[in-house]
Design a protein that fits this description.
The complex is a heterodimer. Chain A is mainly β. Chain A is built from no helices and twelve strands. Chain A is about 0% helix and about 50% strand. Chain B starts with a strand and ends with a strand. The chains are: A mainly beta, B mainly beta.
Chain lengths: ~110, ~110
Protein backbone atom coordinates (compact mmCIF):
# COMPACT_ATOMS: atom_id res chain seq x y z
CA UNK A 1 0.00 0.00 0.00
CA UNK A 2 1.16 3.54 -0.68
CA UNK A 3 0.55 6.58 1.47
CA UNK A 4 1.71 10.16 1.78
CA UNK A 5 1.63 12.64 4.63
CA UNK A 6 1.87 16.40 4.67
CA UNK A 7 2.33 17.14 8.36
CA UNK A 8 1.55 20.86 8.17
CA UNK A 9 -1.89 22.17 7.26
CA UNK A 10 -0.51 25.70 7.02
CA UNK A 11 2.88 27.26 6.33
CA UNK A 12 3.44 31.00 6.70
CA UNK A 13 6.53 32.77 5.41
CA UNK A 14 7.55 36.34 4.68
CA UNK A 15 8.18 37.39 1.11
CA UNK A 16 11.83 36.95 0.19
CA UNK A 17 12.44 34.25 2.81
CA UNK A 18 13.05 30.62 1.91
CA UNK A 19 10.11 28.25 2.13
CA UNK A 20 9.77 24.54 2.80
CA UNK A 21 6.63 22.44 2.48
CA UNK A 22 7.07 18.98 3.96
CA UNK A 23 6.06 15.60 2.56
CA UNK A 24 6.77 12.07 3.71
CA UNK A 25 5.72 8.89 1.94
CA UNK A 26 5.42 5.15 2.25
CA UNK A 27 5.59 2.70 -0.64
CA UNK A 28 6.71 -0.87 -1.07
CA UNK A 29 9.21 -0.14 -3.84
CA UNK A 30 11.02 2.83 -5.32
CA UNK A 31 8.55 5.70 -5.46
CA UNK A 32 7.42 8.09 -8.12
CA UNK A 33 6.91 11.44 -6.33
CA UNK A 34 5.11 14.57 -7.50
CA UNK A 35 4.30 18.07 -6.29
CA UNK A 36 1.27 20.02 -7.50
CA UNK A 37 -0.07 23.51 -6.76
CA UNK A 38 -3.71 24.59 -6.68
CA UNK A 39 -5.00 28.15 -6.84
CA UNK A 40 -8.56 28.95 -5.70
CA UNK A 41 -11.29 27.47 -7.87
CA UNK A 42 -8.77 25.92 -10.23
CA UNK A 43 -7.46 22.45 -10.94
CA UNK A 44 -4.08 21.22 -9.74
CA UNK A 45 -0.99 22.21 -11.72
CA UNK A 46 2.06 19.97 -11.91
CA UNK A 47 5.24 21.50 -10.43
CA UNK A 48 7.89 18.78 -10.45
CA UNK A 49 8.53 15.07 -10.12
CA UNK A 50 11.12 12.59 -8.94
CA UNK A 51 11.42 9.32 -10.79
CA UNK A 52 15.08 8.39 -10.51
CA UNK A 53 18.51 10.00 -10.59
CA UNK A 54 19.62 13.20 -8.91
CA UNK A 55 17.97 13.65 -5.50
CA UNK A 56 17.50 17.39 -6.08
CA UNK A 57 14.76 18.02 -8.61
CA UNK A 58 14.07 21.43 -10.12
CA UNK A 59 10.64 22.40 -11.36
CA UNK A 60 8.42 25.26 -12.42
CA UNK A 61 8.37 28.78 -10.93
CA UNK A 62 11.71 28.35 -9.14
CA UNK A 63 10.57 25.44 -6.97
CA UNK A 64 12.74 22.46 -6.19
CA UNK A 65 12.40 19.35 -4.09
CA UNK A 66 14.84 17.03 -2.42
CA UNK A 67 14.30 13.30 -2.40
CA UNK A 68 15.63 11.64 0.76
CA UNK A 69 15.27 7.87 0.62
CA UNK A 70 16.46 7.19 4.18
CA UNK A 71 13.96 9.64 5.63
CA UNK A 72 11.28 8.79 3.03
CA UNK A 73 10.76 12.48 2.43
CA UNK A 74 10.27 14.73 -0.56
CA UNK A 75 10.14 18.31 0.75
CA UNK A 76 9.30 21.18 -1.56
CA UNK A 77 11.56 24.23 -1.35
CA UNK A 78 12.08 27.65 -2.82
CA UNK A 79 14.98 29.97 -1.95
CA UNK A 80 12.95 33.19 -2.02
CA UNK A 81 9.17 33.17 -1.63
CA UNK A 82 6.82 35.43 -3.56
CA UNK A 83 3.37 36.61 -2.50
CA UNK A 84 2.09 34.96 -5.68
CA UNK A 85 3.31 31.58 -4.37
CA UNK A 86 0.44 31.62 -1.88
CA UNK A 87 -1.67 28.57 -2.76
CA UNK A 88 -2.52 25.02 -1.75
CA UNK A 89 0.26 22.50 -2.36
CA UNK A 90 -0.15 18.75 -2.78
CA UNK A 91 2.41 16.00 -2.63
CA UNK A 92 1.59 12.73 -4.41
CA UNK A 93 3.22 9.30 -4.49
CA UNK A 94 2.87 6.37 -6.82
CA UNK A 95 4.29 2.91 -6.36
CA UNK A 96 5.55 1.90 -9.82
CA UNK A 97 3.36 -1.18 -9.57
CA UNK A 98 0.22 0.76 -8.75
CA UNK A 99 -2.37 2.02 -11.19
CA UNK A 100 -2.96 5.31 -9.43
CA UNK A 101 -1.34 8.00 -7.29
CA UNK A 102 -2.11 8.84 -3.68
CA UNK A 103 -2.31 12.51 -2.78
CA UNK A 104 -1.58 14.16 0.55
CA UNK A 105 -4.18 16.32 2.24
CA UNK A 106 -2.51 19.51 1.10
CA UNK A 107 -0.62 22.36 2.75
CA UNK A 108 -1.78 25.95 2.49
CA UNK A 109 1.17 28.25 1.89
CA UNK A 110 0.72 31.91 2.74
CA UNK A 111 3.45 34.36 1.80
CA UNK A 112 3.10 37.74 3.46
CA UNK A 113 4.54 40.94 2.00
CA UNK B 1 -0.41 20.47 -27.14
CA UNK B 2 -2.76 18.57 -24.88
CA UNK B 3 -5.77 20.19 -23.26
CA UNK B 4 -8.49 19.02 -20.93
CA UNK B 5 -11.99 20.44 -20.84
CA UNK B 6 -14.41 20.03 -18.01
CA UNK B 7 -17.95 21.37 -17.83
CA UNK B 8 -19.97 22.92 -16.44
CA UNK B 9 -17.83 25.09 -14.16
CA UNK B 10 -20.59 25.40 -11.57
CA UNK B 11 -23.80 23.48 -11.04
CA UNK B 12 -26.63 23.75 -8.53
CA UNK B 13 -28.88 20.73 -8.33
CA UNK B 14 -31.75 19.67 -6.04
CA UNK B 15 -31.49 16.54 -3.94
CA UNK B 16 -32.68 13.51 -5.87
CA UNK B 17 -31.95 14.94 -9.31
CA UNK B 18 -29.65 13.24 -11.84
CA UNK B 19 -26.12 14.34 -12.64
CA UNK B 20 -23.88 14.25 -15.67
CA UNK B 21 -20.43 15.85 -15.69
CA UNK B 22 -18.32 15.58 -18.79
CA UNK B 23 -14.58 15.68 -19.34
CA UNK B 24 -12.75 15.55 -22.65
CA UNK B 25 -9.06 15.50 -23.49
CA UNK B 26 -7.50 16.73 -26.72
CA UNK B 27 -4.09 16.21 -28.23
CA UNK B 28 -3.32 12.75 -26.90
CA UNK B 29 -4.56 9.22 -27.36
CA UNK B 30 -5.30 6.39 -24.94
CA UNK B 31 -4.84 8.51 -21.81
CA UNK B 32 -5.51 7.33 -18.29
CA UNK B 33 -8.50 9.29 -17.00
CA UNK B 34 -9.47 10.10 -13.42
CA UNK B 35 -12.36 11.63 -11.47
CA UNK B 36 -11.64 13.17 -8.07
CA UNK B 37 -13.77 14.96 -5.49
CA UNK B 38 -12.32 17.65 -3.28
CA UNK B 39 -14.16 18.76 -0.18
CA UNK B 40 -13.68 22.20 1.37
CA UNK B 41 -10.47 22.97 -0.54
CA UNK B 42 -8.55 20.13 1.02
CA UNK B 43 -7.50 16.64 0.01
CA UNK B 44 -8.48 14.76 -3.12
CA UNK B 45 -10.64 11.66 -3.04
CA UNK B 46 -10.17 9.42 -6.07
CA UNK B 47 -13.59 8.31 -7.28
CA UNK B 48 -12.90 6.49 -10.56
CA UNK B 49 -10.08 5.88 -12.97
CA UNK B 50 -9.92 4.38 -16.42
CA UNK B 51 -7.06 2.96 -18.45
CA UNK B 52 -9.12 2.43 -21.62
CA UNK B 53 -12.54 2.58 -23.25
CA UNK B 54 -15.10 0.78 -21.14
CA UNK B 55 -12.54 0.03 -18.40
CA UNK B 56 -13.56 1.74 -15.15
CA UNK B 57 -12.16 1.17 -11.67
CA UNK B 58 -14.28 2.38 -8.79
CA UNK B 59 -12.46 3.46 -5.67
CA UNK B 60 -15.29 4.41 -3.35
CA UNK B 61 -18.73 2.74 -3.14
CA UNK B 62 -21.36 5.43 -3.56
CA UNK B 63 -24.24 6.55 -5.73
CA UNK B 64 -21.94 7.85 -8.46
CA UNK B 65 -20.87 6.04 -11.62
CA UNK B 66 -18.46 6.74 -14.44
CA UNK B 67 -18.33 5.84 -18.10
CA UNK B 68 -15.81 6.16 -20.88
CA UNK B 69 -17.73 5.92 -24.13
CA UNK B 70 -14.84 7.24 -26.23
CA UNK B 71 -11.07 7.21 -25.85
CA UNK B 72 -10.82 10.81 -24.63
CA UNK B 73 -14.22 11.26 -22.98
CA UNK B 74 -14.96 10.55 -19.32
CA UNK B 75 -18.40 11.07 -17.80
CA UNK B 76 -19.41 11.15 -14.15
CA UNK B 77 -23.05 10.39 -13.45
CA UNK B 78 -25.61 9.89 -10.75
CA UNK B 79 -29.24 8.85 -10.92
CA UNK B 80 -30.18 10.57 -7.65
CA UNK B 81 -27.97 13.15 -5.97
CA UNK B 82 -27.50 13.28 -2.21
CA UNK B 83 -26.58 16.31 -0.10
CA UNK B 84 -23.24 14.64 0.57
CA UNK B 85 -22.42 14.74 -3.15
CA UNK B 86 -21.68 18.46 -2.91
CA UNK B 87 -18.07 19.32 -3.65
CA UNK B 88 -15.49 20.26 -6.21
CA UNK B 89 -15.12 17.62 -8.91
CA UNK B 90 -11.90 17.37 -10.83
CA UNK B 91 -11.10 15.40 -13.94
CA UNK B 92 -7.51 14.54 -14.78
CA UNK B 93 -5.55 12.66 -17.42
CA UNK B 94 -2.10 11.17 -17.69
CA UNK B 95 -0.18 9.18 -20.24
CA UNK B 96 -0.12 5.50 -19.45
CA UNK B 97 3.56 5.65 -18.40
CA UNK B 98 3.30 5.64 -14.63
CA UNK B 99 6.20 8.04 -14.14
CA UNK B 100 4.26 10.86 -15.76
CA UNK B 101 2.19 13.44 -13.85
CA UNK B 102 -1.53 13.96 -14.01
CA UNK B 103 -3.00 17.02 -15.73
CA UNK B 104 -6.16 18.47 -14.25
CA UNK B 105 -9.17 20.30 -15.58
CA UNK B 106 -10.46 23.39 -13.82
CA UNK B 107 -13.18 21.49 -12.02
CA UNK B 108 -16.93 21.64 -11.49
CA UNK B 109 -18.27 23.07 -8.26
CA UNK B 110 -21.42 21.12 -7.45
CA UNK B 111 -23.89 22.39 -4.87
CA UNK B 112 -26.81 20.24 -3.81
CA UNK B 113 -29.85 22.01 -2.36
Amino acid sequence: AQSVAQPEDQVNVAEGNPLTVKCTYSVSGNPYLFWYVQYPNRGLQFLLKYITGDNLVKGSYGFEAEFNKSQTSFHLKKPSALVSDSALYFCAVRDPGAGKSTFGDGTTLTVKP
Amino acid sequence: SQTIHQWPATLVQPVGSPLSLECTVEGTSNPNLYWYRQAAGRGLQLLFYSVGIGQISSEVPQNLSASRPQDRQFILSSKKLLLSDSGFYLCAWSVSNRGQPQHFGDGTRLSIL
